[in-house]
């Protein structure tokens, strides 16, 4: 009885579409509700460091003197609390897969000076 089931599975596998993808060439469409990864718009960021204070894993570092915003993607758990707390809405969750990395690195963004008269 078991050999009939095995034969049926083998024959059906010959005529069906493959279950896997050739990853670098083909990519899966992101499922609905995928949180993705944090993206910052440095043009609107005011370096208030609320995102750094709200991050439960300490993945975000804000340097006001150096005018840099950095995120360690290996520490980020994509909870979205930094996105909810940003007063200027410069952070967002990009619903796409983050690029693959072979080593632990920190993404650092240079935040340009904002004019004093603009709010």
Word description of this protein:
The structure is a single chain. The longest helix has 14 residues, at 2-15. This protein has 119 residues and is of the alpha+beta class. It has a three-stranded antiparallel β-sheet with strand order 2-3-5, with no helix packed on it. It is elongated, with a radius of gyration of 22 Å. The N and C termini lie far apart (76 Å). Helix content is 20%, strand content 18%. The chain contains three helices and five strands, in the order αβαββαββ. The model has no long low-confidence stretch (mean pLDDT 85).
Summarize the structure.
Helix content is 20%, strand content 18%.
Observed structural traits:
single chain, 119 residues, alpha+beta, 3-stranded antiparallel β-sheet, two-stranded antiparallel ribbon, 3 helices, 5 strands
Report the radius of gyration as a whole number of Å.
22 Å
Spatially, the strands of the biggest sheet line up as 2-3-5
**Helix coverage percent:** 10-25%
Q: H/E element string?
A: HEHEEHEE
Number of helices: 3
Please state the structural category.
alpha+beta
Cα end-to-end separation = 76 Å
Q: Which ranges are low-confidence, i.e. pLDDT below 50, for 5 or more consecutive residues?
A: none
Bulk shape: elongated
Please tally the β strands and state the result. 5
| Biggest β-sheet description | 3 strands, antiparallel
In what range is the share of β-strand residues?
A: 15-25%
Mean pLDDT score: 85
């Amino acid at each position: 009885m078991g050999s009939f089931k095995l034969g049926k599975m083998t024959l059906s596998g010959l005529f069906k579409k493959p279950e896997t993808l050739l990853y670098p060439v083909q990519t899966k469409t992101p499922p609905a509700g995928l949180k993705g990864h944090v993206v910052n718009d440095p043009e609107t960021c005011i370096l208030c460091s609320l995102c750094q204070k709200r991050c439960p894993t300490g993945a975000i570092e804000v340097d006001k003197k150096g005018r840099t915003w950095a995120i360690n993607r290996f520490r980020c758990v994509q909870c979205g609390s930094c996105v909810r707390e940003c007063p200027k809405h410069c952070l967002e969750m990009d619903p796409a897969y983050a690029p693959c990395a072979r080593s632990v690195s920190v993404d650092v963004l240079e935040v340009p000076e904002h004019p004093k008269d603009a709010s």
